[in-house]
Amino acid sequence: MCLIFxxxxxxxxKVSFQVRRALQEMGPLEPINIFLRLEIDRMNKVIQxxxxxxxxxxxxxxxTIIMNDALRDALEAIYQARVPVLWAKVSxxxxxxxxxxxxxxxxxxxFRRWCFKGRPSTFWISGLFNPTGFLTAMRQEVxxxxxGWALDSVSxxxxxxxxxNPSEVTESPNxxxxxxxxxxxxxxxxxxxxxxxxxxxxxxxxxLPLLHVYAINSTxxxxxxxxxxxxxxxAMRTDDTYITSIDLKSECNPNHWILRxxxxxxxxx
Length: 269
Fold this sequence. Notes:
With 269 residues, the protein is of the alpha+beta class. Helices cover 41% and strands 18% of the residues. The protein contains 8 helices and 11 strands. The chain has a 5-stranded mixed β-sheet with strand order 7-4-11-9-10. A 4-stranded mixed β-sheet has the order 1-3-8-2. β5 (188-190) and β6 (195-197) form a beta hairpin. α1 (2-10) crosses α3 (31-62), α3 (31-62) packs across α4 and α3 packs antiparallel against α7 (131-144). It starts with a helix and ends with a strand.
């Protein structure tokens, strides 16, 4: 319990003048930078909510203020290692409070590195509030880089790389982005053949190698040997958790994977 209060105090100064200045220096009108600013705003809201609740809980425990129903519910959730309802509402779902705080730290680290060390060569898509918006910003960025291109005629494309770990990547792609953190459910990836294969027995989720996502100036159809794999934030597949679709090469009829219910998940916790 003391550790959680300490984390709340430490996080109070995370979003500072230095962060705002770094965002300004990066170029405020670039699509990716606009996206980053929105993400940091949302992270700031999460931190402020957590800090406010923890400070109020401390005061209530000390007897300085009255322990109302909302604070009592939050305290009970913390003691049971659950994420308080209000925290989950402004942030993300997580099975335990420990996982939630770990992800809070990891998300914060990604944003801080992005701000102070420049644009990363790879992006942890699971640590973004709005991954769909991130991919849209990428398309906008590619469109602006080519004279005569219009966003309406630009389509998202992707290629599964041979990189299994972000540390293997030394530089960003010429266009588009490298993303990681996706896991296959219902199938696995044959890195040598560069295509889908049957899932490994007794393995529910298998990590997908880093993905290069980019854009082309075309709206034409795709290859018939490609499975359009849906990507979801969570194992619960709903319209609210849907992110995008990723093209995965298949040596068999793509309908095989549709019947298998194959999907990509950005969070398996």
